[in-house]
Specification:
There is one protein chain. The N terminus is likely disordered. The protein has three domains: about 60 residues, Orthogonal Bundle (Multidrug-efflux Transporter Regulator, Chain: A, Domain 2), CATH 1.10.1660.10; about 100 residues, Rossmann fold (3-Layer(aba) Sandwich), CATH 3.40.50; about 45 residues. Helix 8 runs antiparallel to helix 9. With about 230 residues, the chain is an alpha/beta fold. The longest helix is centred in the C-terminal third of the chain and has 21 residues. Helix content is about 55%, strand content about 15%.
Length: about 230
């Protein structure tokens, strides 16, 4: 009877408590950080094993996550001449999150929606994958990515991260969405041509740039760079 009790007790304890390495992963910090927090009295292990190993209460760790993980607001524009729009997005996100009483960090990016290597986007993706944020706030859906935004939103859902889009606006028509996608592709292609040294490549890039500029003006803000 005693042996059965010990087995059941160990099963219960193993499900409820985690070792320091797993606790560090759940919080997204290093093992040494947890040791330091214990010394400072911030986060204490629930108990120690007979061998002296720290064990942390899983429910308490999840509670810590709920309290400390911030709202992440993301702002992006495609080029330097849109910096005023970047500041506008920042102000709207800041005011909206403040109104809702959310602890917020605003990540800003400069680059095409087709560029997946932007510094801000990479940081955002890391926070999403680690589950180290409570919600994602955008002024418009297309501020995140030109292609692939729905995939990121799905990952957020799987991680329990709320998605808030301030201005959903009217749904773009298929033609408008397609035109916006083509313009994004042309913009990226143009940037690559500028990186080449030949005069022919640069001339072609300038022609494409003029086409993109004219098309964007005709769309009057209904495409990717609202």
């Amino acid at each position: 009877m005693t042996t059965l009790y010990i087995i059941c007790y160990n099963m219960y304890m193993n499900n409820r408590f985690v070792k320091i390495g797993e606790a560090a992963k759940l919080l997204g910090v290093s093992v040494q950080a947890l040791r330091n927090w214990e010394t400072e009295g911030k986060i204490m292990p629930s108990h120690r094993t007979p061998g002296g190993q720290r064990m942390y209460d899983l429910a308490e760790l999840l509670g810590v996550n709920d309290k400390t993980y911030p709202t992440i607001a993301y702002a992006r524009v495609s080029s330097n001449d849109q910096k005023e729009d970047l500041e506008r997005q920042h102000a709207v996100l800041e005011a909206f999150c403040h109104k809702n009483g959310w602890q917020t960090e605003i990540i800003r990016d400069l680059g095409s929606g087709m560029n997946y290597n932007k510094k801000g986007l990479l940081r955002l993706l890391e926070l999403i994958v680690r589950g180290q944020m409570s919600r994602l706030v955008l002024t418009h859906k297309d501020r995140l990515l030109g292609f692939g935004a729905d995939l990121i939103f799905r990952i957020c859902e799987l991680q329990g991260i709320e998605i808030v889009i301030i201005n959903k606006g009217e749904q773009l028509s298929f033609e408008e969405e397609l035109t916006g996608d083509v313009l994004e592709i042309m913009t990226v292609f143009c940037a690559k041509l500028y990186g080449r040294r030949s005069h022919k490549s640069k001339k072609l890039a300038e022609e494409i740039e003029n086409i993109v500029s004219e098309a964007e003006q005709k769309q009057k803000g209904n495409l990717c760079n609202l």
